[in-house]
Amino acid sequence: MAVDAERIGEFSHYMHNPWLVILQVGLALVILYKNLGLSSLAAFVATIIVVSTNIPLGRFQKKFQEKLMMYKDKRMKTTFEILKNMRILKLHGWEMKFLSRIHDIRRDEERWLYKNNFTLAMITFAFWVAPTFVAISTFGTCILAGIQLDSGKVLSALATFKILQESAFNLPHTVSMIAQTKVSLDRIASFLHLQDLDSDLVEKNPRGSSDTAVDIINGNFSWDVTSANPTLIDINFRAVHGMRVAVCGTVGSGKSSLLSCILGEVPKLSGNVKLGGSRAYVGQTPWIQSGKIEENILFGKEMERERYDKVLEACALMEDLAVLSFGDQTVIGERGINLSGGQKQRIQIARALYHDADIYLFDDPFSALDAHTGSHIFKVS
Q1: Which of 145, 201, 341, 348 has the most CB within a 10 Å radius?
Q2: What DSSP string describes 130-187?
Q3: What phi-psi label fits residue 279: left (phi over 0), alpha (psi between -120 and 50 degrees) or beta?
Q4: Which residue has the higher pLDDT, 51 or 105?
Q5: Whether the predicted pLDDT of 28 surpasses 90
C-alpha cells in the first residue's frame, strides 16, 4: 500500500499534462499554418501518428505493470514468511528448497520487468524520434507542394517543433504514469472494498450478568466464507467463570482457530457465540512494542502499584528485572535491548493479567518457557 500511495502522490505532477499537451499542439499547429499554409496538415498528421503509437504502448505497460506488481508482492510475502520461520527451515535443512522458490518467483518477476522496461524504452524512443519525424514530414510536404522555404520560415518552424518536442516529451511520461497510477488505484480500491470484520459475530454481555464465560451454540466458522469446507463445524462449547479449560488436539486441528472464533476474528457461518465480560488474549508469537517494559505491561492502563507487583511476581519477572540496570524502565523492542523468547512471552502474559479481564485466552503460552517457570505461572496466576 505504501508504494501504491506514493505513486498516486507522484501523479499529481503529471495530472495537468493531458490538456496542456492538447493546448500546446493546437497552438503549434496554428503557428505552422500561418507560416507554411496547408503543409502544416502534414505536421498535424505526423503528430497524430506519434500520439497514436503511445496509446497501445500505454495499454501494454498497464498490463505489464499489473503482472510485475503481483509477482513483486508474491516475492516479498514469500521472503517475509521465510525469514519469519528461518529457525524451522534451518532445523529441517530446507534452506535451499525455499531459496529456489524465491529464485523461481524472482525469474517470473524479471520476465515482466523486462517487458515493462522494453515498453518504456519504446515510449522513450517515440519521444526522440517525434521532432525529426514531424520536421521531415512537414518540410517534405512543402518541397512536394512547391512551397518556397526561406530562412525565416524554416527557423520559425524549427522553433515550433521545439514546442511539439516538449509535448512529445511530456506525453510518454504522462502515459506511463497514468498506466502505473491506474494499477495502484485498482490495488488500493480492491483493498478498500474488502469486507470488514463483522462486529456482531460475538454477543458480548456485561460483567456479572451471567455465570457463563463462553457459550458457543451450533457454531460453524470458516476463514474463507466461499470455501465449501468450513474450518470448524458444529461447535458446541460452554465454560463458566472460574473454570480452567485446556483444548488439546493435533497440529492443524483448529485449536488456535477456536480461540480466534471466541475473539470474533473468524467469519461465522451460523450459530451463536456469547461472552460474559471482557477478554484478554495471549498469542503463540509474543508481540512486544518498542518502549519500556512497564509500558508494555500497562499498555495504556493506569498504574496500580500493588496489582502491578503481583503480576510481576506471578509471571516470574522479578529476577529478570533485577538483572537489568534500569529494571522495568528498560527500553525493549526494535529500539531497545533484545529479550529472549521466554522473557517476551512472560511480558505478554503479564500484560494480559494486569488488564484484569473476565476471560483469558492463552494460545500455547508456555511453549517458550521451561517447565518450572511454566508451572509457577500456571499455579500462581
Answers
A1: 348
A2: HHHHHHHHHHHHHHHHT----HHHHHHHHHHHHHHHHHHHHHHHHHHHHHHHHHHHHH
A3: beta
A4: 105
A5: no
Q: How many CA atoms lie within 13 A of 198 on its CB side?
A: 13
One-letter amino acid identity for 281?
A: Y
Can you tell me which residue has the cell 503511445? Answer: 54
What is the rounded distance in angstroms from the CA atom of residue 69 to the CA atom of residue 187? 10
Cα separation, 40 vs 135, in Å, equals: 10
Contact between 294 and 329 under an 8 Å Cβ cutoff? The reply is yes
> Tell me, what amino acid is at 176?
S
Architecture (CATH level 2) of domain 2-192: Up-down Bundle (1.20)
- Amino acid residing at 229: N
Least Cα distance to 234 among 216, 259, 255, 256 occurs for 216
Per residue in 243-280, pLDDT (tens digit) is: 888 888 888 888 888 888 888 888 888 888 888 888 89
Band of pLDDT at residue 136, cut at 50, 70 and 90:
confident
All residues at 6 or more sequence positions from 10 whose CB lies less than 8 Å from its CB, including other chains: 177
Cell numbers for 169: 516529451
* pLDDT at residue 208 tops 70: yes
- The grid cell for 222 is 470458516
Domains 2-192 and 291-380 agree in fold: no
**H/E element holding 272?**
strand 268-276
Pair 46, 134: CB distance under 8 Å: yes
The size of the chain, in residues, is 381
Longest dimension (CA), the chain: 105
Instruction: Write out pLDDT tens, residues 307-324.
Output: 999 999 988 888 888 888
Radius of gyration of the chain (CA): 33
Domain residue extents for the chain: 2-192, 203-277, 291-380
| pLDDT at residue 64 greater than cutoff 80 | yes
Which class is domain 291-380?
A: alpha beta
| 3 state DSSP class of 227 | coil
231 pLDDT band, cuts 50/70/90, is confident
